[in-house]
Amino acid sequence: MSDPATNTPETEAPGLDFDRDIGNFHYDTKYEHDAGVGLRPETLDYIADVKGEDDWIRAFRHKALKIFESKPIPTHWASKDLEAIDYDKIRYYLSTGQRPTRSWDEVPDDVKKTFERLGIPEQERKFLAGVEAQFDSEASYSNMKEELAKQGVIFVGSTEGLMEHPEIFRKYFGKVIPAGDNKFSALNSAVFSGGSFIYVPPGVKVKQPLQAYFRINAENFGQFERTLIIADEGAEVTYMEGCTAPKFETTTLHSAVVELVALKGAKIQYITVQNWSANVFNLVTKRGMAMDDAEIKWIDCNIGSRLTMKYPGVVLRGKNSRGEVLSIALAHDGQHQDTGAKMVHAADNTTSTITSKSISIGKGRATYRGLVTMPKHLQNCKNNTECDALLINDNSCTDTYPAITVRGDGNSVQHEASVSKVSAEQIFYMMQRGLKEEQAMSLAVNGFVNDLIREFPMEYSVELKRLIELEMEGSVG
Amino acid sequence: MSALEIKNLSVRVAGNDVINDFSLTVPKGEVHALMGPNGAGKSSLAKALAGHEDYEITRGEALLDGRDIVGMEPDETARAGLFMAFQYPSEIPGVSIANFLRAALTARLPEGETLKAPAFYKELYRAMDELKIDRSFTSRPVNEGFSGGEKKRCEILQMSVLKPSFAVMDETDSGLDIDALRIVAEGVNAMRGPNIGFLVITHYQRLLNYIVPDKVHVMHEGRIVKTGGKSLALELEEKGYDWLKSELTPAEAG
Amino acid sequence: MSLDRNQPEVADAGLGSSSVFQECLSGFGWAAPWIHKLKQDAWERFQRLPAPHRKDEQWRFASVQDLALDSFRLPVVAGDSSAGVPSFDAIRNASARMVFHDDALVEAPRLPDTLREQGVIYCPMDEALREYPELVREHLLTRLPGIGSQKYESLHAALFHNGTFLYVPANVEIAEPFITVHWSGLDDGTALFPHTLVVVGDNARATVLDLFQSVDPGTRHFVCGVSDVYAGAGSHVHYETVQNWNLNTVAFHLNSASAERDAALKSITVNLGSAHTRNEQHCRILGAGASVDTDSLTVAKGTQEIDQRTLQTHSAPNGHSDLLFKNALLDDARTIFSGLIRVDEVAQQTDAYQTNRNLLLSDTAEANSLPGLQIAANDVKCSHGATTGSIDDTNIFYFLSRGIPRRMAEELIVFGFFEEIVSRFDNDELSDFVRELVQNKFRN
User: Fold this and answer.
1) C-beta atoms of A433 and B94 within 8 A
2) What's the CATH code, domain B3-93+163-253?
3) What is the value of ipTM here, to two decimals?
4) Are residues C360 and A400, on separate chains, in Cβ contact within 8 Å?
5) What pLDDT shows up at residue A7?
């Protein structure tokens, strides 16, 4: 079983390939470091020892574990499916023991094979300014264009970031999302490994995106990457992440924490295309803090996983700052996409926008949860939220649960939500033009999300459309 | 035979027989008008031919160049060469006219073949120029927010690009002002030729001033009760459908 | 008891104490065993259920610290309880009217003979339990809202003893409203449990108005009212409530409205009074083609908290429900609107809408909005919208430029905001009455 690949990727597809099954293969890999199964204080020490971490990080981990253990599973509002996660059966740290290399030639063969098959090196050549490729717990490859390094841009893994640039990263680490924010941020804070630490110096505008690719390879594994992006005054950066895992019988856990800090006048755009296999619990906390005149934009597309719970947020701390979340969720049979957005207004003249579109296919369930707050004595804050749900089959489900609190003078909030389906007359019309029923359905669905997909970078949008078409196959009837 | 031949067709909708033993042949190269009072079954005929699932064909056949289209899925019928211009075209949010037509043309190609973008746009722009449609039109979502006239123009554009062998115009003229009516008529007239047959369904004679039919059929209670030349339409306009009904009653009794 | 100071008496104090329940039950010596059982079960349920906590989704944003029951007691009925009760004549056109003071009947209804002969029943709840036990039993407490206040529904069931019973037989159509006026009395610290049960038969028509007011602006009261309006197949029912308790009152109004096949049920709620009101409204589409409209108007000022929870449940196809809640907030007032549209799998071709509009008239008032959708059928049209904002300065400027002072301009804008709902009363006297109440609240 040295190459038990279960699926052959399409050979003709150019560029990025988001075939729902493209990640469904697995090469056996030798791990140098393995924290074993289960979560105990020793697990944390093992990770800290392997990484050679400073004492403060070790203490941070242990404190977080206590918080994790003290917090209940939030099933009083969230899905009961969370109870299916058995924390004693998960492996929390696995690595090949190699430091991330700057050259694909130095990446171990079995790991390299995986990323080549996912097309990562090819994308890097085509349109990326830098790439980090994480394999289970650690990055195998990390490289950035030379001219960015010369401008002072830092793009490293979390271990390296905390140890080599504490003066930059320690100040914000765990500040936007404290360990105790929720049960899963506490878990991540206890066992985090991998992820990206990025710093963009004042005024530097990184033109091409930086990309991270997260790959879960091992069974029963939990991936807990930690990402912190700091855009200094007037800086601009776009970060994209993609993720896949093979389809194992057992459950796999992915629980990341992502913190963004946009200082005065900075702009951060964070793009996610989540395509985990259907056995993955994807429980992610993402939040950004925007200072004066800064802008943070989350573009979030959730297609895979068994259960995703993710509500990217922006704390609008500085005057005139702007926050935006664009979210697309596609919930297929057996999937629950529980996604949304949080906008916390904390300064005058701040504006936020949330646009969410979800599609439920078969017995899929898409949930929108939103939170918008404008505390008192703030002035001229605006929020606009639109969330639309499309139901494809008789048994498809959708829920919408926004929570809006407004005080203050001249603040305004608008929330609109709708639920609709593709009408039989629409389908007939398109079939009369010669389209097959599935094509007609797929076209209608693509039309539904079209205005959002246009916001994605070109390289992603083409493939997203194709992916939606693939998802629609077999949905009619 | 190169024709649309409808033979002894009966159609039921929601338990009601709306078309009874209906027969009609439209040879390629001809334009036939189908007229009749409201409720005569004209639109039901169009929907049934196009394969709408609510219209159950209980008897008879409909041959498109000799191939029976009864029982076919709507898209198969369309790819077999039948185009229907809708009385009320659907709005399809977010899907541009260009993408829609490209998908429709691609669906007509053999499996695995793709339509090259330059060739597609060349053909699309040819059709648009012919119909004097502005190029910006193609990026608008299909029929969404269109005026009545724009929707009909969009139908004609699709017909021109998809090049059917037979077209059924289902009351395309209803609710149109005279300018929009001209657009529809010019579109049909521009396409007229030996390779296409038209069945123009209308309630009013007005359209036939612009599209001169080879034959006029009058439908009543689900079947054709009178067939004639262009003059029959004028006669109907003058005397009204009631004249026809009164003329029919004794005949039916016998 | 008071001598035994070492024993903790908290659990056994005031309204929550077993002695109060026994006192209530002793007044039901005449009643059928099923009534005793119903009350006994409810009391046990009340004791068992936990007190609300802000972490419960159904109590999100709500205040719970002022819900303690220990300083309240049941009213003591002694002699003529109508003494000191003001007359109420704002609405003269009515089919019949009754008045309660601290849950005791002070004006009995005079039902016209024509209605009596058609089988219409309109009487106090205690009379209904005595005279028509089987009719009441079929409906009593069978459709509670269940949107978070189950503990208080149980308390109500255990302690209620009066209220309104209206029964309209099939095919009887009545145009003029039935009006029940509830006063809270001169005694401080009384607890009221007004119950309203409206049963309208198939193809019948009726309008019911419940008015809640206080005799004295200073007395403290606890109110825990339940209403249940049932619209039979093809019937047309209007249910209107005006809540204008004094500002020392903590009130629960737990309402349920259910519509059978093709019935049309409209309800309008006006919330003006109380220190803290928890208003739950559960509208149920029970039969195909039924339609339920639910409107609400709230003016909250000072430190008032108006906590509104709604649920629109569609359990049958082709139903229609539309909900519009409008709140105007002044000073440090708080409102919570939490609404959910729930469409069951069988409820295809549902049209359901929900709208919450909050108008902030001070920068310290707080409006919370939790509009929700839970959709399990796919062929539906559902939407919700929530907006919160203040009066647009350009609008004010327009008034000023016409010589209208700012305060009057604001008032006019706020009336305009509410007129959409006030005009739906379908009863000019009631519309005028509500306009006046709203106006007074703004000016004082």
Assistant:
1) no
2) 3.40.50.300
3) 0.82
4) no
5) 35
